[in-house]
Model the fold of this input.
Amino acid sequence: WNVPAYHFDPTGEYGARCPVVADPSHSNEVTFRACDHITAGRHSTELFVDAAVRFLETVSRSAPFFMSVALLAPHDPRTMPERFRSMVDPEGIALPANVLREHPIDTGALRIRDEMLAAHPREPVEIRRHIAEYYAMIAHLDHGFGRLVAALQARGVLDRTVIVVAGDNGLAVGQHGLMGKQNLYDHSVRVPLVLAGPGVPSGRRSDALVYLLDLFPTLCALAGVEVPPSVDGRNLIPCMTGDCAGGREVLYLAYADSIRGVTDGRHKLIEYACGATQLFDLSRDPLEMDDLSCRASSGPLLERLRQQVRRLALEWDDERHPAGRAFWARRADLL
Done:
């Protein structure tokens, strides 16, 4: 609500500031927020969708256009209009089996802001409330998305528009004793990715391993535009048509300077800067509850995945980044 925002600035500077008294009950100190206006009483999802709909009302029915709508939802603080909040009863939510009271390993981020949104140790009643608010905010987001689709249809361009719905990260919301995204479990790194429109087969699902950076060359291909040589991503059209050659054999996973990992779709290895290791068989343990890393029988698999971590760290120039250098300095045993 009441999100500080900017009108479009063709210079790209966005230098305007609005005055605010943050604590008027105790101080008259004036500070300045980075914005040129605030729309009182309007939720960010509605604010952004309103702007997107206005843009769609002006697009040509024949010329190409591109629009990116980066909603703040469902980021905390999770608020939404009451009619969406009332859709979800916290008492009716069944907690996932991997909800824990505390995370057993130092992730390097156990006391950051995200993890302080719920009390330590985690309590089921509070986690249910957070999940209910998460679902309600997604319902509000979905309503906004429906408005965008309706605007495309009203303008007569829906049938020639490629639509992509993607998330930049997931969220733990109590799973593994965590609240935020600062980990490498599937609930936080496996994000929604849905495409629809001309050139996209309908009703298909793919288990291919992909990065969000693969969207750029994919959209270029769907639009008939040449992919710039500087682009690292891969065209996902083969994955959409049933040829998984367009995907990747393994994904490199990283969080800040404290966690690295890989997954090949079936197995996942997670290495922590504190020295801990986790190994999961996702095919039989999708909630990542049974750590196999200490089992003698897992030795060959563990070494194979560690080789992949080393290879991909080099491939992605991880040690050239300050966060990567810090991690590998603490986990030289993996090199």
